Amino acid sequence: MHRLLEIIILVLMLSACAPSAPTPVTLPASAVPTQTPPPTPTLIPTPVPDTLFVDLSQSLGPISPLVYGSNYGPWLTVPFYMLPQAFESGVTILRFPAGAWGDHNNVTPLQIDQFMDFANQLGAMAIFHVRLLDGTPEQAAEMVRYTNVEKKYNVRYWSIGNEPTLFDAEIKNRGESYDIERFNSEWRTFAEAMKKVDPTIQLVGAEINQFSFDPSPGATTNFGPRDEEWFVEFLKANGDLVDIVSFHRYPFPSSRTSGPPSIDELRANAQEWDKIIVHAHELIHQYTGRDLPIAVTEFNSAYDKSVGGEATPDSHYNAIWLADVLGRMIKNDVFMANEWALTAKGGFGGLGLIGPFDVYPAYYTYQLYKKFGTELVYSSSDDPNLSIYAARNEDGALTILVINLSSEEKTKSIRIGDQASVSAEVWLFDQTHRAENVGVVELSDSITVPPQSISLYIVSE
Question: Which of 5, 252, 355, 373 is within CB 3.0–4.6 Å of 302 for a Cys-Cys bond?
C-alpha cells in the first residue's frame, strides 16, 4: 500500500511538470521543405588564418528546426522516472515506430494515440513509417486515414519501409528474394495509395540502411556499393514522387568483426559528414533534376550495442562527435535528422539520449542546441579539431558554438565581424560541466576552450 501511494504521488508530480493538455504540434514556416541548390563540395577557406571567424553580414539562411530529431516507438518507451528529462530534451521531431520493429509489426490505433500524446507533451512533430515488409498498400492507406482523417493528427511526413536493403536477408529462409526493382515498384504502389487518402502528406524515402561519400567496399560504408546503387535506382524510379530523400548512417563498427571505435576514429569520422551530405545533394540533383531536401532519419556513431568504451554511444566523446555532426548537417542544409534513439530498449543499451536512471552525455548536446540560433551565419575555422558554427536567434542575438574535438585545451584567436570586443554568456559541456552556465566572458583577442568540449557563446547586443 505504501508503494502504491508513492507511485500515485509521482504520477501527480509528473503530470504537473508536463503540459497541462497536449496541443497539436504546428509546423514552423522554416520547416517547410524547399528546393535549394546543393552546397559546394569544397571547404570554405577561412578569410583570417589561424582564427575563428564569424561574419555577421553573411546570412546562410534559416536552420530547419527538424535537424534536432530522434526515434521512438512502442518498443522504446522512456522509463517512467525519466519522463521529465524526456519532456525537456529539446527533440523537435520523433520518427515512429522506429527501426525494423515497424516492418515486423502492425501499428495499432491505440499505439498511434499514445505516441501522439507523448509527442505533444514533448512539443515534437512526427514522421510515421508504414510497414512495407509483409505489409499492404491498403494497410498503409488505412494508417494514414486513421491518423490524419479520423483523428486529425495532421502528421505531415511519411516513409515506407525501414532499411529495405536488408529485406532480402530476412526472407531468404522463405525461399523469397527482395531486390531493388521489387522495392521501387512496391514503394510507388504504397505511396500512391497513401497520397490518395491524404494528398497533403510529404513522402520520405528511400530509408536505406547505410550511405556514404565513398561506395567502394571496405571504405566508409559497412556494406559496400549496393547502398549507393539502391539510392540511385530509387531516385530514378521514384524521384518524381518522393518529397524528401532519406538515408541512415552508422559509421561504426567499420566491419562485422571490428569492435567499437577509438576516439581518434570518431574524431576523423566527424569530418566525413561534409562529404556525405554534399554527395547526397549531388546525386539527387543528377538523377531527379531537382534539389530535394535531405533527411538522415537514423544516425549515430555505431549501430551495435557496445557500451562502456571511450567512444561508444554512451560515452562523453560521443556527445562531442554528435555536436560536430549536427553542426555539419546544419551547414550543409540537411532538412531533418533523427538520432538513434530517444532511449534504448528498456532504457538499457547505451544508444540514445535517455537511460534507465540518468541521461547519457549526448542528451547535453541537444540542451546546448536548444539555445542555438535559427538563422545560420558564416563562420570558419582552419583547425580540423576546432569547429565553429554561428547563428542568430529570432530576437537577433548571436549564438556561437565552438567544439573542441581534440584531447588538449585550445587557445585560439577569435574575430566577430569588425567588432573589437563583445560580451558573451557561456554555456559549457566538458568532463566536469553538463551544459552549465559558467558566466560571462569578453570575446576579444582569443578564447580558451577545454579539451573534448562544447562551448556555447550567447553574445550580448
Answer: 252
